[in-house]
Write a structure and sequence with these properties.
Blueprint: H1 3-33, H2 41-53, E1 60-64, H3 70-75, E2 84-88, H4 92-104, E3 115-118, E4 131-136, H5 145-158, E5 159-170, H6 173-180, H7 183-203, E6 204-210, E7 217-223
Parallel strand pairs: 1-2, 1-4, 2-3, 4-5
Antiparallel strand pairs: 5-7, 6-7
Helix pairs in contact: 5-7
């Protein structure tokens, strides 16, 4: 058996293990897990593109809601020398797996101090560092509108002026909720979409659809303006439903 075959088998085994872990955690709490499968390579690549676009300049990068690390694995090789990565994960089992990933990643050998895993909520994170890029994998449509506003405002507060936030949203989830959920859940889902639409209208610089993902997803890229103030109070985006 050649080295490529052995390596390929290890990758397949890892992906299968991650898939099962996602299913187990979704069964425990779909609200915080938010997905039934890890993000695809195509989705991870788009989410982490802003890091690559900065070139060789050292960056402060934050990944929130990293799950089993499918996006983290795309992110680490894109970090320029001297960059720092903070990873936030509220699920204790995912956080433990992410710490193992950091300890064993070949590109971090002898440099583990560049990457830190924080087992906490992103709203409670306080590293004292502003970020050039934030990559979010949080399941916004599983939260309340007020929670989404709090998180989005926190992201904007943590970004450098001119810094970039990327996040994704699964396509067709509103229609799925209409068929499978209560009226209250459907209204909450729609209100969350309205909250996000307000931020998209103010700050979005691009949107792309990733069809090669389960399910397909839209990737949004937002940028904190160089001179515009960050909204500080809930409900500041006109017409937000509570």
């Amino acid at each position: 058996m050649d080295e490529w075959t052995t390596s390929h088998d290890r990758v397949l085994a890892q992906r299968n293990a991650e898939g099962w872990m996602f299913l187990i955690e979704a069964a425990r709490d779909l609200r915080t897990t938010g997905a039934l499968a890890p993000s695809s390579k195509a989705l991870a690549r788009l989410l982490t593109d802003p890091v690559r676009e900065h070139g060789i300049r050292p960056l402060n990068v934050l990944e929130a809601g990293a799950g089993t690390g499918s996006v983290t694995r795309a992110l680490i090789p894109r970090l320029s020398p001297g960059s720092r990565l903070d990873i936030v994960e509220a699920n204790p089992r995912f956080a433990s797996q992410l710490r193992h990933l950091v300890r064993t990643h070949p590109q971090l050998a002898g440099q583990n101090e560049r990457v830190h895993v924080h087992h906490t909520l992103v709203e409670q994170l306080d590293t004292g560092r502003p970020y050039d890029v934030i990559v979010s994998g949080l399941p916004f449509t599983n939260f309340t509108p007020a929670q989404v506003e709090t998180i989005m405002n926190r992201y904007l507060e943590m970004l450098h002026p001119g810094g970039t936030l990327t996040y994704f949203a699964y396509r067709g989830t509103r229609y799925a909720r209409a068929l499978t959920s209560s009226r209250a859940q459907f209204r909450r889902h729609r209100a969350v979409e309205e909250v996000l639409a307000g931020y998209q209208h103010r700050y979005a610089t691009g949107r792309w659809t990733v069809w090669a993902n389960l399910p397909p997803a839209d990737v949004w890229q937002l940028r904190r303006p160089l001179d515009a103030p960050v909204p500080a109070e809930p409900g500041v985006l006109a017409g937000v439903a509570r």
